[in-house]
Amino acid sequence: MPKPDTREALIDAAERLVAARGLRGISVREVIRAAGQRNHGAIAYYFGSWHGLLAAVWAARSTGAEQQRQLRIAAEESDDRLHGLVIAYVSPFVAEVSRHTPSYWAQFNEQWLAGIHADFVNTPEPLVPGDPDYPPIRGMEAMQSIYADIAAELGHLAQPLRTARVALAARFVVSALASWERDQVSGVWQSLDDYEGELCRLMLALLRADGEAAAT
């Protein structure tokens, strides 16, 4: 297996350390060491800053834009648009997780969401305004758009509850995939194809649950 280049090694190391420990308390030196580098200026050289490295992790792992676009087109032509949109959200995420053995992408997302407002669909900002550990990430418009499309299908819920329900369902998928990754690291293998189908079914059920039932 070819050795990753320095830039790729730094991205992999940052993703892995954030997945394990969150965004806080990780030093630049730790990432450089974990990437097998000795040059303490490597992050500044390749990414400009720590925030630039985090943005590069997102860019390197968010590779399913075309797949998601095709699935959203299929959702528009489906008799069950909400089901199609759920697949358009889950499948590219699962595809990215499946590209790496082991994978840390869902765990990275899980740690990121730990510092974001509960209804991150409506308020995609950090819990602490201006938190330096949570830089703005470019290129999230497509994800916000699919969240909006899913929310628009939740006519059984009062308007203020729709984005909160979408955020809850999305968090469920992220945490479930993070659990799958941790099992993978520990050597407990499950079929990711079967897991994907179960995630889609459960996310759909969560989105369609009655509003009053969810409040009791």
Detail the topology: elements first, then pairings:
Blueprint: H1 6-21, H2 28-34, H3 42-47, H4 50-61, H5 65-76, H6 81-98, H7 105-113, H8 141-152, H9 159-186, H10 192-208, H11 211-215
Overview of this structure, please?
The chain has 216 residues and is mainly α. It folds into two domains: 6-58, Homeodomain-like (Arc Repressor Mutant, subunit A), CATH 1.10.10; 63-215, no CATH class. It contains eleven helices and no strands. It has helices spanning 6-21, 28-34, 42-47, 50-61, 65-76, 81-98, 105-113, 141-152, 159-186, 192-208, 211-215. The protein is globular. The termini are far apart. The mean pLDDT is 92.
Keywords:
216 residues, mainly alpha, Arc Repressor Mutant, subunit A, 2 domains, 66% helix, 0% strand, Homeodomain-like_sf, TetR/AcrR family transcriptional regulator, DNA-binding, HTH_TetR, DNA binding
Instruction: Give the topology string: H per helix, E per strand.
Output: HHHHHHHHHHH
Strand content: under 5%
Described by the principal axes of the CA atoms, the overall outline is: globular
Low-confidence stretches: none
Alpha-beta classification: mainly alpha
Helix content: 55-70%
Largest sheet: none
> In DSSP terms, counting alpha (H) and pi (I) runs of 4 or more, how many helices?
11
Radius of gyration: 18 Å
Number of domains: 2
Mean pLDDT: 92
Number of strands: 0
Quaternary organization? single chain
Distance between the termini: 53 Å
In short:
Helix content is 66%, strand content 0%. It is mainly α and 216 residues long. The longest helix has 28 residues, at 159-186.
